[in-house]
Amino acid sequence: MDICPYDVIVVGSGATGGMAALTLAKQGLKVLVIEAGPLKERKEASTNEPADSINRLRGIITEKHKNQIQHPGYWKNNPNLYADEKKFPYISSGDKPFLWTQGNQYGGRSLTWGGITLRFSHSDFQPSIKDQYGPDWPINYEDLSEHYDYIEKFIGIYGRKDNIQQVPDGCYIGQIPLTDSELFFGKKVKEELNYPFIQSRGFDKNASIKEKDWPRSSSIGSSFNEAIKTGNVQILTNHLVESFETNSETELATKINVIDTINGSRKYLNCELIILCASTIATLRILLNSKRETDNKGFNDPSGKLGKYLMDHISICKFFSIPEFHPNKDIRSIKDGNLSGAGSFFIPFGSELPNRNEIDFLRGYGTWGAIDRFGVPRFLQRDPTDSVGFLISHGEVLSKESNKIELSDRVDEWDIPIPKISFMWRDNEHKMVQHMKKTIRESIQVVGGEIRDVDEIYKIPFIKKLTSKSIATSDDPPPPGYYIHEVGGARMGNNEETSVVDNRNRLWRCKNVIVADGSCWPTSSWQSPTLTMMAICRRACLNIRKHYLE
User: Fold this and answer.
1) d(Cα 319, Cα 28) in Å, to the nearest integer?
2) Is pLDDT of 480 > 90?
3) What percent of the chain has pLDDT over 90?
4) Number of other CB atoms surrounding residue 362 within 10 Å
5) What is the pLDDT of residue 356?
6) How far apart are CA 52 and CA 75, in angstroms?
7) Per the count of CB atoms within 10 A, which of 13, 117, 129, 168 is most buried?
């Protein structure tokens, strides 16, 4: 395609890339968005059985989706929305695996996003006040509040105002009813265990649902849909960003190096401003490839922290059943519902954890759950009168220097060094998991439920064989990367000695490169990260002329 004149280059077209393009375009700037993958038609991205099952089988046999098959989303979404791992490889240690889910297409991983949107609390930005561990954010809740408001109103978020400190209320367009069993569950854990209980917040249906229009949970169906209407945005697909180069005197980026993934040709595009939104690991790869080593074309990282302090969420999942009960018929609800970002619930402990005398770890977690939302016909249940649910706890992972991304000696088919990921759970995370198991067990017991394996709940042919090796049903936490919540590696801070970017997301020595996705995070907290990523991105891209182009 012919490239028209542009003011800003945005790398990546997922949730943050779309928000960057929208925010910049509304300021009258001409935006070039570069995406490594192709533009897919809506029908190519919709769920379509039995074709999806055939393509999943093909992906497994060819090892095209060797790691990504382990993510539960792979089995409910169109497998064509998951990148070819042979074409886009990476390395992690065999005894310390990292499961990297890639969404290399226009829309990125927003096309498979589950759509949970929880705000950070005030204390999540300064966690060291409580425990004196690690860095704090150089921004606070007030810095993001208006951006949370804008995004929630723009994309249309469902939820309920619960007035709980751990998860501040947002701007909601309505509520998705809880099922009878969820209302019963919430009542019991609040009254008998004094656990917090809220309705989940997010979208009304999963992004995988087949429909004519792109879902609002995707960047294509929301931010790009509006951004393109301005006439200020052009999309360059099938182009992989390798690196950027800088002027040795000004230390500003002057050109970006891209590869046409169809024919392998290289392009060098001049740039005045770069916004990196390629997703955490892909962005870190670009930065590491652009770092000054033996020549003067790269940028300086005075901190020496680039690629270090990678984080994720530690998790554990349990399925359970509740014997038949008689709910309060005065409460209007539903017997069964669809699982979605808003059609579910949370036990949002945060750092306000119960059983404090048993806590021998730092930070906190929250537990996502749902009951009677699986969509499996009741005649396939071993006891059709039971209510079936799950609880998944997500906990904060401490920032550790040894959890990192480096460039491997191996290269991909375009001769670009591939990411080498070193990451392992440590004692703090393992201790947190034990506490998670206890609160999950107490929550299920208080409603008269029982933790069960999936094959004990459903009488589906071959289910035991399918679930026996499933990471999701294991008693151990899944490997890092499993829930696609990776952040960090180019953390933001208040000085160049301890951080990679400043409090406006600018590289300290190369201020016209903005790191606006999850890689800029100094801590992970426990909430699903996408909403906060988008809020940080919008803040970085607003008033762009004042902060970056003057």
Assistant:
1) 50
2) yes
3) 74
4) 18
5) 75
6) 9
7) 13
List the beta strands (DSSP E) in 485-535: 487-488, 506-507, 510-515
pTM value > 0.90: yes
Local confidence band at 497 (pLDDT 50, 70, 90 cut-offs): very high
Sequence-distant (≥ 6) Cβ neighbours of residue 90 within 8 angstroms: 98, 100, 281, 408, 418, 419, 420, 421
Q: Residue 524 CB: number of other CB atoms within 10 A?
A: 27
Strands 239-246 and 387-396: unpaired
pLDDT at 70: 83
Q: Which residues contact 403 (CB under 8 A, 6 or more apart)?
A: 308, 309, 310, 311, 397, 422, 423, 424, 480, 488
68-96 pLDDT, tens digit per residue, is: 888 878 888 888 999 999 999 999 987 78
Name which of 267, 261, 262 is nearest 244 in CA terms: 267
Structure-derived torsion over alpha carbons of residues 163, 167, 169, 175, reported in degrees to the nearest 10? -90
Q: To the nearest whole number, what is the mean pLDDT of the chain? A: 91
14: phi then psi, degrees, rounded to nearest 5: -80, -150
CB 281 within 8 A of CB 407: no
Asked if 419 contacts 546 with a C-beta cutoff of 8 angstroms, the reply is: no
Report d(CA 499, CA 232) in Å as an integer: 33
The pLDDT, as a whole number, for residue 45 is 85
Q: Is the pLDDT of residue 474 over 90?
A: no
* 313 strand-pairing partners: 396
Q: In what order do the strands lie in the sheet with 8-11?
A: 233-236, 31-34, 8-11, 274-276, 510-515, 506-507
Q: Helix (H, G, I), strand (E, B), or coil: what is residue 242?
A: strand
Q: Is 450 helix (H, G, I), strand (E, B) or coil?
A: strand
The closest of 254, 40, 215 to 112, measured between CA atoms, is: 215
Q: Please spell the DSSP secondary structure of 385-437, one letter per residue.
A: TSEEEEEEEEEE----TTSEEEEEEEE-TTSPEEEEEE----HHHHHHHHHHH
Q: Render pLDDT for 153-181 as a digit per residue (tens, 0 to 9).
A: 999 999 999 999 999 999 999 999 999 99
Name, in order, each residue with C-beta under 8 angstroms of 54's C-beta and a sequence gap of 6 or more. Answer: none
SS3 content of the chain, % helix, strand, coil (to 5): 30, 20, 50
